[in-house]
Each structure stands twice: as C-alpha cells, then as structure tokens.
C-alpha cells in the first residue's frame, strides 16, 4: 500500500525539462534571423511603349502625355496628339523639382481629363534612381506610368 | 540584524530563473519570425553591392523571370549571363535599335524554353512578365538596352523591383 503512495508522489513531482526546449528555440531563432532579409522589396508596374502588340486604332487616345527627364534636373512635360503643349520645369538645386512636376501634372489632368497614362522618357545619363523617383512622383497623379524612349 | 541578513541570503540562494516565461517569449518570437519569413511570396535577393532604388510600391507578389543589372554584370535568375564594365555593354554589342545582341540571344533562349514548356504542359502559359532588379546608379541607357532586348522577345510587362520607402 505504501509503495502505491510513493508511485503517486513520483508522478506528481514530474517536471518537463524545459532547458533543452529553450536551446532548440534559441538555435531556431538564430537561424531564422540569420537567413531573413530585412529589405522590404516592392514592385512597380511599368509597361513599355514599344515592342508589344499593335495597339487598336479605335482605342487610341486623342492626346497623350510624356515626361522627359533631361540632364541637370530639367524636365519637359509635353502633350502630344490632337492638342500640343510643352511645359519646361527648371531644376531646384540641380535636382528635379518634384513639387512643381506634380503641380504641372495636376493642371494637365484637370484640363485634359481623358489622359489616363504618362510615358516617361529620360536622357541616357540619367540614373535609374532618378527615373524611379520621378515615376513614383508621377504615380501620385497618374496611376499608369510607362517607360519609353526605345 | 544578523538574523535578517541570513534570511535574505537564504532567499537569494533559492531564487531560480523563470524559464517558462522565457520559453513563452521565445515561442512568440519564433512564430513572428516564421510568419514574416513565409509572407514574402517572391524571393528577390539583390546580390551584394547592388542597391535598389526606393519608392512607394506594392508587395512583390508576382512570380516572373528575374533579371539583375549590377555594375559589372547582368544576371538572369541569379546566373551571370553578360559582363558589364561600369554599367556599359561591350563594344559592338549594342545595335542601332538599342538592343544588345548577346542579351537578346539569352532572352531568345529563355523564351524558347518557356514556349517548349507551355507546349508540353497545358497548365503553363507563356508569360510576358519580367522583374527588373537594377542598381540605383545604373544609367537609363543601360536600362533601356536591357528592356529593349527583352521586349523584342515578348517580355513587355515590366515589373521594377524597388525597396519600399516609408
């Protein structure tokens, strides 16, 4: 009878050895942290204005807009098609004046409501960062920005 | 006084680390890390030395052919396919229409592979998407050449990989 009591006591005293579990978790966390990338990568959509299928003539817009990044931060916003218009944006401290670009594009959008996309052009020496930065700024006004110039 | 001191000393000897709460913290950390690790559907890992430009963008949820433009090479799906010298293509490589002959050949081969797979597997279709992973310092001329070389082989739906800004 006493033996049975001892057995009961033994089973109540049983404890899980948590130290080994902690070891496993530490190794797992270290491994996950070492292999994880902390860069948050996103995707910008950029159709191309050349090289694709032929556009249907019925769907061609009456006017279309291009933004041309020139060297030293100059930008030309041009309206082509049925109506023609050109606006030159001067640089601010040798950099693209993004604020003025947005303002200009908003004015264009108010005047020509059927313009839905913008074609982005750039000089050969313009860096990819400047192209993306400008593209990002244009997307605040026009959701579709296509790369052009080839 | 002595009795009080002894009592305190005895208490500190009996104190043990609360390992259960520590295990809880570790489990929460692990679950959080694994969740964020698995949420990235597309694995875009720029090679060392390549700095992506920053922009507001959507999550990288598209699976497509990946081409990386770095200062010294162009890589397709992580394998170097063309050497560059300071982002510039080799002499006589770029044609008048802005297409790189060597890069065009690489895209042609890749396209043929895709078409062959699509012909033999009805679940697979030929895709026009391509993800461009380019260094922020790359001149637009180089980008244009890469895009033109891809576009003539049907890769016209360009996805530009960027680092998501705040």
Radius of gyration of chain A: 31 Å
| Name of the CATH superfamily of the largest domain in chain A | ATPase, nucleotide binding domain
Question: Count of DSSP helices of chain A?
Answer: 4
Q: Let me know the number of strands of chain A.
A: 6
Name the largest protein-protein interface in this structure: A-B, 44 and 55 residues
Q: Strand arrangement, largest sheet of chain B?
A: 1-7-6-3-4-5
CATH-defined topology of the largest domain in chain B: Nucleotidyltransferase, domain 5
Care to count the β-strands of chain B? 7
Largest sheet, strands/sense/barrel of chain B:
6 strands, mixed
User: What is the typical, i.e. mean, pLDDT of chain A?
Assistant: 81
Query: End-to-end span of chain B in angstroms?
Result: 61 Å
| Residue fraction in strands of chain B | 15-25%
CATH overall fold name of the largest domain in chain A:
Nucleotidyltransferase, domain 5
Principal-axes geometry of chain A comes out as elongated
Under the CATH scheme, the architecture of the largest domain in chain B is 2-Layer Sandwich
The count of domains of chain B is 2
Q: Which value, in Å, is the CA radius of gyration of chain B?
A: 27 Å
| Global shape of chain B | elongated
Number of helices of chain B: 4
Description:
The complex is a heterodimer of chains A (150) and B (166). With 150 residues, chain A is α/β, with parallel strands linked by helices. Chain A folds into two domains: 34 residues, no CATH class; 91 residues, 2-Layer Sandwich (Nucleotidyltransferase, domain 5). Chain A is 37% helix and 24% strand. Chain A is elongated. Chain A starts with a helix and ends with a strand. With 166 residues, chain B is of the alpha/beta class. Chain B is built from four helices and seven strands, in the order ααβββββαβαβ. Classes of the chains: A alpha/beta (150), B alpha/beta (166). At the A-B interface, helix 2, strand 1 and helix 4 of A face helix 2, strand 1, strand 2, helix 4 and strand 7 of B. Strand 1 of chain A pairs antiparallel with strand 2 of chain B.
């Amino acid at each position: 009878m006493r033996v049975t009591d001892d057995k009961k006591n033994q089973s109540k005293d049983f404890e899980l050895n948590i130290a080994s579990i902690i070891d496993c978790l530490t190794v797992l966390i270290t491994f996950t942290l070492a292999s994880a990338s902390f860069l948050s990568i996103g995707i910008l959509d950029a159709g191309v204005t050349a090289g694709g299928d032929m556009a249907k003539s019925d769907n061609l817009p009456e006017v279309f807009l291009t933004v041309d990044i020139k060297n030293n931060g100059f930008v030309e916003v041009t309206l082509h098609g049925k109506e023609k218009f050109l606006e030159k944006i001067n640089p601010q401290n040798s950099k693209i004046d993004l604020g003025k670009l947005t303002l200009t594009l908003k004015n264009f959008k108010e005047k020509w409501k059927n313009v839905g996309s913008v074609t982005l052009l750039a000089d050969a020496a313009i860096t990819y960062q400047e192209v993306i930065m400008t593209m990002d700024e244009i997307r605040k006004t026009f959701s579709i920005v296509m790369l052009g110039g080839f | 006084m002595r009795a009080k001191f002894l009592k305190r000393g005895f208490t500190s000897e009996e104190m043990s680390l609360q390992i259960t709460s520590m295990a809880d913290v570790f489990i929460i950390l692990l679950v959080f890390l694994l969740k964020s690790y698995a949420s990235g559907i597309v694995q875009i890992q720029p090679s060392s030395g390549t700095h992506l430009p920053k922009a507001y963008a959507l999550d990288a949820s598209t699976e497509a052919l990946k081409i990386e433009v770095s200062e010294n090479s162009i890589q397709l799906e992580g394998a170097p396919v063309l050497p560059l010298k300071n982002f510039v293509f080799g002499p006589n490589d770029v044609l008048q229409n802005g297409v790189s002959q060597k890069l065009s050949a690489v895209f042609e081969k890749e396209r043929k592979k895709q078409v062959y797979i699509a012909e033999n597997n009805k679940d697979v279709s030929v895709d026009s998407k391509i993800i461009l992973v380019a260094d922020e310092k790359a001149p637009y001329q180089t980008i244009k050449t890469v895009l033109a070389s891809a576009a003539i082989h049907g890769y016209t739906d360009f996805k530009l990989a960027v680092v998501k800004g705040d």
